[in-house]
Design a protein that fits this description.
globular, 75% helix, mainly alpha, 197 residues
């Protein structure tokens, strides 16, 4: 195993740590949301420093998202956006994800290229797999966007159930990301496009 491969495999998952941190720390008060946004921004820089230097789409989106929201709420006192933070976060992630697909640079491709030989970068199977994985994450973000919207309009306890479902959907995405490349390694027809994963 070459140096850094474990970090590279974890890279895409590190991009979701700020989301989890924000979800854990953000409460119903303005101060708790500011704390959560600040913590998510700091964690983005610390956990994703290497990916930021490489220009990874996901981590830069996360930094701009949480950093911008922290400035808006904590500095500019735009507290009216707080109830909409979940919708804003997942709408942005959805837009960036499907935008990366339309631009033919699905964000998972950036991470996957670090785990395979350069000669496989243009392999149709390799590209197709990353389109599928990025599309899957786009679906995760859209589902969580809808759930966060429902949380705004639903009474309790339905709103709490929707919040719990957002975590379940996010965990499902992480499990899929860990499982799918290993599953492809077992498929003889995909092996040529997935070596190194």
């Amino acid at each position: 195993m070459r140096p850094g491969i474990l970090y590279e495999k974890a890279g895409i998952l590190l991009g979701f740590i700020p989301l989890i941190i924000y979800g854990i720390l953000a409460g119903s008060s303005v101060s708790s949301v500011i704390t959560a946004l600040g913590a998510a921004t700091i964690v983005t820089v610390l956990a994703g420093f290497r990916d930021l230097r490489k220009g990874m789409i996901l981590i830069w989106t996360t930094l701009v998202l949480f950093g911008g929201a922290f400035i808006a709420v904590g500095v500019l006192n735009m507290i009216s956006i707080i109830p909409w933070m979940g919708v804003l976060i997942y709408a942005t992630l959805s837009a960036i994800t499907f935008g990366s697909i339309l631009a033919k640079i699905p964000f998972t491709l950036q991470y996957a290229r670090e785990m395979v030989d350069r000669q496989l970068w243009e392999n149709p199977v390799f590209i197709r797999v990353n389109l599928l994985m990025t599309s899957f994450w786009g679906g995760v973000f859209v589902i969580n966007l809808l759930l966060n919207y429902f949380m705004l309009v639903m009474p309790e306890p339905q709103g709490r159930i929707a919040q719990l479902l957002t975590y379940i959907v996010l965990v499902a995405g992480i499990i899929f990301t860990l499982w799918y490349p290993k599953h492809l390694q077992k498929q003889p027809s995909s092996a040529s496009g997935q070596s190194g994963k």
